[in-house]
Amino acid sequence: MIISERKLIEYEVELCTGLHIGGNKESYGIGGIDSPVIKDPLTNKPIIPGSSIKGKIRMLLTHIDVENHNLDEIDKAFGSSDKDIGLTRIIFRDLFLTEDSAKELENRLGKGFYTEVKAENKIDNLKAMPRFIERVPAGAKFHGECIVQKLDEDKEDFFELLKRGFELLKNSALGGSGSRGYGKVNITIKNEKDL
Questions:
Q1: 64 phi and psi, to 5 degrees?
Q2: Is there a contact between 168 and 36 (Cβ–Cβ < 8 Å)?
Q3: Of the listed ranges 15-19, 128-132, 135-139, the one predicted with least confidence
């Protein structure tokens, strides 16, 4: 197997609604946040793990768009521990808040603040108890990168598969509480570069 092509794809994810991808719960005490978002430990800014985008796109392609793509193609693109498919063809990297978005959020929320807290009612018991969910506000933008690789024997177009996955994700939800309106995103490919 020889890698015949490698391409860097730079893209932007803009939040159309608030986004919640859960992180580690810290001790917030009484009245604190019940469900924090995942953050970069060095900057305390929210991130979108590459695994979240990868997993959601894989699920959408497998369950919604399977008539257009066979499962072997999806396994090659996203990897498989059950099959000997060789090198995973699409590598997803974590997405980071753009500098412009970080400044805008600080202007709106205060220096060092990049998230909002939304109260949601618990509906799984007789008393409606508020839960406090941390989320990244609508309008925030994240910079992402993927590496798309092709082996000399590959017939599939994995870049087209990635673009189809992005389109499906625009009409779904990323992260938690999608049925409550969280996680609607817009994805724009900003740059493609051969490596």
A1: -105, -40
A2: no
A3: 128-132
Average pLDDT of the segment spanning 133-144: 94
Structure tokens belonging to residue 51 = 């695994």
Express each pLDDT in 26-40 by its tens digit: 544 445 566 788 999
**Dist CA 28 CA 70 (whole Å):** 46
H helices of 29-175, in order, are: 50-63, 71-78, 99-109, 158-170
Rounded to two decimals, the pTM is 0.87
User: Which tokens hold the place of 168?
Assistant: 């499906």
Find out whether 185 and 170 touch, Cβ atoms under 8 Å: yes
CB 41 within 8 A of CB 56: no
If you search the block for the tokens 């609607």, which residue do you land on?
184
